[in-house]
Structure formats: structure tokens, C-alpha cells
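Worked Example 4.2. Read the sequence first, then its C-alpha cells.
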Amino acid sequence: MSDVPIEQPLDYPLPAPAALEPPAEWARLRQQCPVARVKLPSGDEAALVTRYEDVRSVLADPRFTRELNAPGAARIIDTESGGLFNSPVANTLAAEGHARWRRMVGKWFTARRMAALRPGIEATADRLVDGMLEHGQPADLVTHLAFPLPVWVICDMLGAPESDRDRFAHWSDVTLSLTEYSGTEIDAAQHEFTACLTDLVDTKREQPGDDLLSELLAVTDAEGRPMSDAGLVATAQALLVAGHETTASMIAKMVAMLLADRRHWERLAADRTLVRTAVEEILRFDPNGGFGLPRFLHEDAEISSGLLPSGTTVVCSMAAANRDDSAFESAGELDLGRSPNPHLAFGAGAHSCLGQPLARTELQVVLDVLLRRLPTLDLAVGADELRRVEGLVVGRLHELPVRW
């Protein structure tokens, strides 16, 4: 399975030396062991792929399925609900039919929709920056901006009441747990989350509004079939988790990476036309990309690094692949003007992230607002003092102390 065998599987996720530094193993694995044995938090073993070509081909190949509840598939975590990747939500969406589900939900993530949402996102970001300025410096950018903005945006899209936003943020956090929360806490949160969103769907059925859930209740697919009630609840839960936590984490990491070497921030402050390419490069360069994407094989499959046998659970590290020098010139350097930039931060193929247009819009807007409002922004602590949250599917910072 690899160029250089490893006698014992590596514990996965791999540890990193600092919050803004990648795991030291990434480079060695890409060069010497591109398909490595790893032990997951459940104790089960999987194959980790880290080269760009391999990760892209696995994610785009339909033989590598999302059927992580199949007999013989490795468990990511050992809980009743199965964790994020093989939770009841994931299984419900699979039952809706992936292509059908994407067609029904995808119209909410078009370029036209994003252009319409942009002014509201900008106004929310400005309001949150106002609150941070009122708080005074130093301030935690995670608390004041990075976390509240995405949950407000996705709740507005779903038509969820403002009073539920803190609960949604908590449930999203628990849903993404690998080792941060106990199995009992994860299972309880899943039940509470599902019950709350079931009530929300019922409310939208009785009192529809101008939101995604109301529209999904009113539309049918090409065969005239509506989305099931379970599918609607699972859709709301999936969008809340993906649309909140991952973007919130990325906003904080984006600002941290730019301020860790402040020449990057100064370059953007002097030329805000670079914001779009800067966001793409930061997505590529993310040293704390989280768990990656698991896939399961029902048949033998050949990739450039060798044969993967049937029954293998494969974990794709997009973050490691995005640092591959064979795919990106000077991959270990942050180049804010890099173009083209075919990074894999949002995956690849038919299962690439549905919400990536929204994530890109939020990141671009937040960065543009901060550059406009706070061109003197700086870290209030050394970059080596930043702490990453361990034990979650997504890579996240505990806090981001800033001054201006």
C-alpha cells in the first residue's frame, strides 16, 4: 500500500507542532508513504492518502463511496450515532439520492443568490466589527466576528429564529466531535438537534416564509416527488453544521495566517483587489484542515500510488494534498496572487462541497470589511501562542486575540 512500509499505524488525526503549522508527517508521507496505515479515534484502521493526484482521483472516482456504514467499513468514532460521517443525517441524505438532493438544494447556492446575499453579509460583518470596537482591544476575533457571522447567515437562509442560534452553534460543535465530547454527549446532542429542526420544518409547513426550508417544502423533483420530512430535517442539520462551523473556523484561521507574517496583511491593505485570490490561497494553505474526507471501497481500485483492496476505508487529506509541490509551485509558501489555484479545500468531483459559493462569499466579505475598517489590525499575542482545538472534524483555533 505504500512506497515505505510503516510497521505500526499512525494515530490519526496527526498532531501538529503549532496552531499555524502543518503536521510534520505530511511531507514525509507524500514523499515516502503516500498511502499510510492510520488508526482512527474509534481504534479502527484506515488508509490515509496525502498526494494531490491521489486525493483528487479518489474524491472524483465513484468507486470510492460515502457508504461508511457498510459492513467492514472503519468507524470514525465509536458512538451510537456514528459521528458526522456515518450519522443518521448522512444516511438520510444518501437515501434521498445524492444527485437528486443536490439539484433540489443547489439552486440556493448559485452565483446570483450569492450576489443577492452579499450586501446583507457585509452589513452583518460591519455590525459585528462595531461591537468589537466597542468592546475595546485586545479582543477575541473568534467571539466577536468569526463565530457569530456564519451562524447568522445560515439561520437567515433556513428561516430559523434568532433565539435558536446559540443552540445551533453548540449542536454543530458537538456533531463535529472526534474526541472533544463523549459518546453520550454526542448522541444526546444529535437527538436534541433533530427534534428542534423537526419542529422548525413543521412550523415552516404551517407558516412558510422566504427561506430555503419553505421553498423545499413547496417544490418537487423532476419526477414530481417532494423531499421527505426526514430529508428536510437532515438538510437543515447538514447546512447548519457545514455552513456554520467550517466557515467560522476558516475566518479565524484566515486572519491569523495573514497577521502571522504581517507583510501579507499590509499587501492586501494596499491592494484590496487581491482579496479574491487571497481567499483561494488561504484555503489552499490552511495548515489545520481538520480530518479530511473518508471513503469506502467495495472493489479493488488502482491509484497512482498503488492498489487499494476492496473493503478499505480511505481518508483523503485535502490539506496535505494542497501542500504538494508536484501540484503547486512553492507549495509551502503563501502567495496571495496565486492563479490558477486548483486547491482541494472543498473536495472534488460529484461530492464537492455544495456550499462553497457561500463560504467563498463570506470569507471575501469578512476580509474586505476588516481591511476597510481595521487596516492596522494585528495579533495581540505571538503566532506561536495561538492554540488549536483538538478533537474536532474541522480545524479550529480556540481564540484569536487581536488589536488595532
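Now turn to a second chain, presented in exactly the same format:
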Amino acid sequence: MNIGLQILKRRRAVPLQLAQEFLSIPVANVSDGMARMTAGGPRLRRMHRGDRMAGPALTVKTRPGDNLMILKALSIAQPGDVIVVDGGGDLTNALIGEIMVLEAIKRGLGGLVIHGSLRDADVIAKSPMPVFASGVTHRGPYKDGPGEINVPIAIDGMVIEPGDLVIGDDDGVLCLPFDAVNHLLQSAREKQAAEARIVSDLQAGKFERPWVDATLARLGCHIEE
């Protein structure tokens, strides 16, 4: 083992068919099923024109400003994979740009998540490839390493293990632990159905929220008559 400079094999991955079930579900609904305690941070924003992202994680940990291991990850990623890069959140140098995004498209990847900067933002903004990043800069990357592939990483407190499910939409990025994906799919579908009923009630002019008054009473809130 050479910690800091190693490429490991991914031992398991969420099946692509299961991952794609989440493409019809808002990230917020999944997040609610995780007690609203997990997130990739507010700086990870959608940089593409396309739809939602969902796919098994191929993780990369790299020195800030260096993309050597990201280039290697592109060469070994499987169709549908989401390459998730922990670049330390440093925004000084871009870790990816137009050429790497084009390669990801040609390889049929599911998306790119960069905890760091990208460049060629105008081109990427028109791309169908899901791309999330923390910032934009014209300054390019170095290619010297070190770095690691298929190791556990963390982005703003959100831990991503190789093969976990990574999803994203306009509200941000979320990682679902491998063993919890089926349960979270069910809870997210229930949440989505419940919200659809609320929307239907609102459209019908029904605005009752008895739980609000019940909560205020439980808290001992004084309400002047």
C-alpha cells in the first residue's frame, strides 16, 4: 500500500439500472429521507444544461490543482459511472475543462463531480454531460500527482465510498450509501407521492395545516386573541 499514490479496484457498485431509477426523483426528496443531514455543500453547483445525474461513484482524491489521477480515472471508468473528485475545494486551478468533458461524453459516463474548479465554463454550460463543480477559473491544472483512485473521500462532510450512488440536480449533489439505496428509493418515492397530494390540495384551494397549530401549542407559544 502506498497511501497518497495508489489506484485501487472498486469492489462493488450500485447497479446502473437501479441508479437510473433516481433520475425521476428530486434530490431534495431523497435528502429528506436521510434526515436532511447529508449534503455535498452549497458550493457544488450544476454547470451543465442537462438533466439530473445518477450513477455509481468512481472516487478520486487529488492534490489541489492537479488532475493526473482524474485523467487516469477517465480511462478506467465504466459507462454510467460518476467520477467524484475531492480536490480539497481549492478554486485556484481548474481540474477539468472542455476536452475532459468531451471524453466523458464519448465514454458514456454518468457525470462528473469536482470539489474544485473547472474551466471552459461556457462550453460545459451547453453540454448534456452532468457536471457539478465548486467554481470556475481560467488557470489550468498541473499533472504531477500525487493522488488516489477508488478510496473513500469526503466533500464538505459528505463521505463517498467507491460504488456508492451519487445523484445531483439544481439543488446540489447527494451521496447514498451502497447498502441504503433500495430503502432510500422507496422512501423518496413515498415523499414524492406525498408532495404530489399536497400540490393537488393546494390547487383545489385546501390550505389546512393543523400540525402547525399543534406544534405551536406543544412549544407553549403565546398567541394573542
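Notes for the reader: The two ends are 70 Å apart (CA to CA). The longest strand covers residues 53-62.
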